[in-house]
Amino acid sequence: MISCPARFFLKIGWVTGSDLNQIAAKMERSRMNFSPHFIASNLGTELYEVTEEGDLMPNPIWEQRLAKTRFSGSLVTGLVDELRYEYGIKLQEQTNFGQAKYKHNYYYLMESEAKSSYDLKIIKHLSKINGIALNVNRCNPAAGDPDRAYDVDFIPQGTGKQEIASFMMDHYGVRRENTMAFGDSGNDIGMLQAVRHGYLVGNATDEAKGLHEKICPFSHAAGILEICKSIFQDEPFIESVQNK
Q1: Are strands 180-183 and 46-50 parallel, antiparallel or unpaired?
Q2: With contact defined as beta carbons under 8 Å apart, do 193 and 162 qualify?
Q3: Global pTM?
């Protein structure tokens, strides 16, 4: 447990690729008895603030942002079909939990490093010209994903983990130097770089560790706890919070 002086006011959020049902199941399995101040689910495409009663309230400003995007399931399907029939690039739909309204998940199965590099460039290019944001990172077999594969996630422009981090800083009026985040995979890198103290946990994927230098000394929650202790005891950090 971290002992924080009364002058600290913390806002805690979960920014995750899981949907609300998956989050609830994980909370139940871990017997978690507390809730964060906000939850950004489905890779930071949906944003909910948690009331004191534990209810989830969609953030209205974020909802307006989503409404202005041109993202749709049919647009993604058309893009996936074009990749398959025009470029011979096959994406395998991730169907374990179904597709979300604002996040569509696929696997790209590697054949060779050279072909993968070429194919991923085409996927990124077509997504851009179709007005779709894209998240691509190596799969983590330890999490149940296939080996030698990439996660390919299509989401609305202006959304995602990095966008959520920036949005919540503005929403809460928190300066960047007073922010921190933790992650374990390639899709966390943008978020970690958006905040002042962004760290990968010790058990992060090799891909993520190759993209980000700040790494916790330990795995899982132990690594997060160690970094939090060092930050909250740091004199410049305390002075920055006091002078906010």
Answers
A1: unpaired
A2: yes
A3: 0.89
